[in-house]
Amino acid sequence: MFYPENFHVTAPGDLEIVISRDFDAPRQLVFDAFTKPELVRRWLLGPDGWTMPVCEIDLKTGGAYRYVWRREATGEQMGMGGVFREVAAPERLIATEKFDQSWYPGEAVNTTGFAERGSITGVTIAVLYESKEARDTARRSGMEHGMAAGFDRLEALLAGRP
Amino acid sequence: MAAEPGEARAPAATAARNLRLQTGFMSESYHAAVDVYAPRGVKYQMVMQPIGYTSPATATLDAIFAALADPTRRAIIARLARGGASVGELAAPFSMSQPAISKHLKVLERAGLIWRDRDAQRRPSRLRAKPLAEASAWLEEYRRFWEASFHRLDGLLEELKTEEKPRPSRRKQ
Question: B115, B5 in Cβ contact below 8 A?
Fold first, then answer.
């Protein structure tokens, strides 16, 4: 069994979030898993309880993609999509991305790199906000979108309360 | 929030201690700032936002991440997680002058990461738990979404590999 050690989520700059992870699979396979709808909808789901009823990917420069997630317990839905700016299979994808609940102005740009290291494929996802304003707006409204409850719990934990 | 000055004082020390107890899930190369404050095993009850635009609670995260970008300041935070310390106490292990340490403390204070206890004689610096928790929660939610997804992807890739089909068809551009 392969247990990847290096899963990183960092905020290296003012406008960027970078996520990286190694996978024990050939690059082409990993690239496919990121770009073929029938594969993407099987894993890009976040925590348990969500499905992906819509997953459309027109994999070419200028092509659009669209994802819709659904929380089965509540029926709550959430969609996002964008346009590919660059498709360099199987090395790199650059795409805009924007959530339907556009609580921030402008789009973010997602650059996903696939690096081959022997039998391992290293994936790096960098999400770059268009502007500081976009990111800050996203941040502020993030709070309103349901983090308050989480913070309450966290604060209780930090304060040593049950 | 219990760790704010002007409110209860004792819980601040508890919070700092608990912060320290909860750290340590990351690998060497993990963002060092996270390594100082990321909570481990905290269960958030948040609305999931795939890919992660939920975020931060305040517009001060810039200042927080900028403050934590410096290794000395991260070390100071790590030290303060063990309890409040005066400028002199902080300067000693770093072999830095007190004015140099004071400069770092000002940056941390401006970012809201620490506060100076002006009532106590030594004016010890103390951690503020809330901004750390917010910065941490922000990254933590990205981490949580992707970790769950990637774990699922591992399984899918194993399955695809064992299918031992001929190489997947080349995709159209």
Answer: yes
Q: How far is B87 from chain A (nearest CA, A)?
A: 25
Beta bridge partners of A126: A18, A111
Instruction: Tell me how far apart the alpha carbons of residues B65 and B98 are, in angstroms, rounded to a whole number.
Output: 23
A77-88 vs A92-99, strand pairing mode: antiparallel
- Look up residue B16 and give its two tokens: 């700092």
Distance from CA of B62 to the nearest CA of A (A): 6
Distance, in Å, from the CA atom of A81 to the CA atom of A103, rounded to the nearest integer, reads 14
**The pLDDT of residue A100:** 78
Give the model confidence (pLDDT) of B9-52 as tens digits.
Answer: 333 333 333 332 232 222 222 222 232 233 333 322 222 233 33
How far apart, in whole angstroms, are the C-alpha atoms of residue B21 and residue B165?
48
**Token pair in block for residue B118:** 């002006």
Domain ranges of chain B: 10-37+58-161
Domains identified in chain A and CATH numbers: 8-131 (3.30.530.20)
Provide the CATH number for the domain formed by B10-37+58-161 in this structure: 1.10.10.10
Q: Is the peptide bond before A162 cis (omega within 30 degrees of 0)?
A: no
Q: For residue B6, what are the contacts with CB-CB under 8 A and spacing of at least 6?
A: none
Q: Which chain B residues are closer than 8 Å to A103 by Cβ?
A: 53
Residues A29, B157: C-beta atoms closer than 8 Å: yes
- From chain B, the residues in CB contact with A47 under 8 A are 48, 144-145, 148
Q: Which amino acid is at B13?
A: A
Angle at A8 between CA B141 and CA A55, to 5 degrees: 60
Mutate to test the interface with B, among A93, A147, A152 (most CBs of B within 10 A): A147
* ipTM for the whole predicted complex goes beyond 0.90: no
Residue for token pair 């700059």: A13
Cα–Cα distance for residue pair A117/A114, rounded to 1 Å? 10
CA dihedral B152→B158→B161→B162, nearest 10 degrees, is -130
